[in-house]
Amino acid sequence: PNILRIAQQGEPILAQRAANVTNLHDATIQNLIDDMQATLLAANGVGIAAPQVFISLRIIIIASRPKPRYPDAPLMEPLAMINPEICWQSPDTCTGWEGCLSVPDARAPVSRSNHLRVRYLTRKGEIIETEYVGFVARIIQHECDHLDGVLFPERVT
Ligand SMILES: O=C(NO)N[C@@H](Cc1ccccc1)C(=O)O
Ligand SMILES: [Zn+2]
Question: For tag attachment on the chain, is the N or C end more exposed, with fewer CB atoms within 10 Å?
């Protein structure tokens, strides 16, 4: 896998709505998922979205793990979600610190739904619907925002 360049705030692609993946089993998509994961780990992040590596497709990777900045982050295997849809999100919210690999040196408290249900395709093509709470739900909302061209500073109230 390759470590890819990460688009920084100001790149037009970060403000665009990404397209659904229609060729999940193509090697280009499978390799992209591997490259996104390698890039995420090299950047010491907990999530990444395809537009951040200059690919305007609806692919995100969630990889929560405890880090100095997020000590209460749960440990999970990196998970690729293709064409993710938040099918429900709780009205109750919580505020927590966020950062972004595309917005260096910026961190701010952001209010997000504390609980959500997301429906997505796995990299093998299975349709999964799962509920998440807390920090992982936060990452999912942050990454899905990237797919719609939204960066976290726009969410700071
Ligand atoms: O820029 C990204 N993802 O798009 N990466 C952020 C993701 C994130 C999201 C929410 C709260 C904390 C951190 C990171 O620091 O790994
Ligand atoms: Zn981000």
Answer: C
- Give the span between the Cα atoms of 42 and 90, in whole angstroms: 33
Q: Whose CA is nearest to atom 11 of ligand 1?
A: 98
Respond yes or no on whether ipTM tops 0.90: yes
What confidence tens digit (pLDDT) does each residue in 85-134 have? Answer: 999 999 999 999 999 999 999 999 999 999 999 999 999 999 999 999 99
Pocket of ligand 1 (CB under 6 A): 45-49, 52, 98-102, 138-139, 142-143, 146
Nearest CA-CA partner of 22 in 83, 87, 85: 83
DSSP conformational letter for 46: S
Helix (H) or strand (E) holding 127: strand 127-133
**Residue 87 corresponds to which tokens in the numbers above?**
């099918």
Active site (annotated) includes residue 143:
yes
Residue type, 134: G
